[in-house]
Amino acid sequence: MDPLLGAADLARLRDALRAAGFTSDGLDAGAVRALERGDTSRLLPLVTDETPLGTLTRLFLLTLAVPIDEATAVLGPLDPLVDAGLLKRGVRKGTPAVRAAVLLYPYRQGWLLADAAGGGSDLVVGLSMYPDVLARARVGGPVGSALDVCCGSGVQSMHLSGQAGSVTATDLSPRALRFAATSAALSELDWELLHGNLFEPVAGRRFDLVVANPPFIVKPGTVDYLYRDSGMPLDTLGQKIAAAAPDVLTEGGTMQYLAAFVHLGDWRDRVSSWAAGTGLDAWIVQLGCSDPVRYVHNWSHGAGLRNRADWLAWLVEHDVEAIGWGLVSLRRSGRSDPVVQVDELPGGVPDVDRWFAAQDWLRDHSPLDECYRAAPGVTLRQSAGLGPDGWLVDEHLLTAELSARVNQLAVDLVEGCDGTLTAREVAAKLAAAYGLDPAQVVESTAEAVRRLVERGVLQWER
Ligand SMILES: C[S@@+](CC[C@H](N)C(=O)[O-])C[C@H]1O[C@@H](n2cnc3c(N)ncnc32)[C@H](O)[C@@H]1O
């Protein structure tokens, strides 16, 4: 797939961007962080900035018209950029001007090209909360090969370039692939870009790390926007991607993707069934959830009232109570006892490395015979009901990354774990203090310890 610009024009553009400081290092750190979530508001001070950085920010991020002379002074000859569809000519206050036809984000070690809102059905989406969450939740550590399915602008590939020996990216949209090719070439990165449906372009190949931010919106089976609509019923796409994982992952490999979770009866059982039978460890974390009315409102982007009503009626017809979205992480751990867990972390970013490490550790140790400490920052929230004998605490919620509803014994256990006594010894001490049977207390502690380690409340001593 060819970039939109030839090598010489790309080199000239890159030099101009660098010289102006239009890089993620050149911008204010807070503005870069906001930009990563698609928020350009922190760049507004640059609207009146007369430096080349101000010019490029107005042009490529705020999509404001810039006088031709000013743009030429920063970018050099504009014709190649106009011909490639990056800029379009116009007039501003009677003066010849150019305006960006695409967004160009300074991003990590390079730049990313994407469409501004309002494009056609093959719109290449820019930065937003979704790719940001996927990138931040990605498992760490160097890998040999990585695959970015549904790569769009190439935002995930950009992250993978710092982690993987080779990066392959696929998309169904030729426009997205040309944008990704341009981003890669401009950023001096080497990605193998392949056109096709989901995993078809890499059939028979395996990767150490696979990521995907696919079109996971739940709507009637038509594709209005390729970036958003899969054309598959309800959340079938998420199930289909999970089913592909065993054949695309190397031994020890990890797949992470965003998905919708349709709430139909017990949604946790439904989504955990995606992983059952794959033989993979799976951590499925819901990060947000909307009722059908809010969902249609949020995703219908100016669609007419009739379309919204049809969409909503379709959700109601299918008994959809709510629609969640979140992250699915699957790992080919080579274990005979794969763990599948579903959690909720509204608005959060799951620490997937920690979760997989905890699962390995729990399987390789006898948790009762290990020493622990409470994770830094653990909180305990209790609520009480007023009974005949006064206040009675009836709920204890321990929270680190995730929350665990526990009993008083577990609360005391966490307090007693000081890194020197094993969980078994702490439980025996508590039994003596409560006047309870030590064997019973130790037995009931085993499951609590496992749960508290899994949820990050207890950390094992290394
Ligand atoms: C939500 S966008 C994600 C883009 C980018 N990965 C990101 O994180 O911002 C989804 C992408 O999936 C692509 N796509 C849609 N259906 C596809 C399919 N069946 N196979 C491969 N790619 C597809 C779209 O063209 C779009 O680029």
Essential attributes:
462 residues; 3-stranded antiparallel beta sheet; 8-stranded mixed beta sheet; Arc Repressor Mutant, subunit A; 3 domains; binds S-adenosylmethionine; single chain; 36% helix; elongated; 27% strand; Rossmann fold; alpha/beta
List the helices and strands and how they pair.
Elements: H1 7-19, H2 29-36, H3 52-61, E1 66-67, H4 68-75, H5 79-83, E2 87-92, E3 95-100, E4 103-107, E5 110-114, H6 129-137, E6 143-149, H7 155-161, E7 164-171, H8 174-186, E8 191-195, E9 207-212, H9 236-248, E10 249-263, H10 267-275, E11 281-290, H11 292-299, H12 305-317, E12 322-331, E13 340-344, H13 352-364, E14 371-374, E15 379-387, E16 390-399, E17 403-406, H14 408-416, E18 418-422, H15 423-434, H16 438-454, E19 458-460
Parallel strand pairs: 6-7, 6-9, 7-8, 9-10, 11-13
Antiparallel strand pairs: 1-3, 2-3, 4-5, 10-12, 11-12, 14-18, 14-19, 15-16, 16-17
Bound molecules: S-adenosylmethionine.
S-adenosylmethionine (SAM) binds next to helix 7 and strand 7.
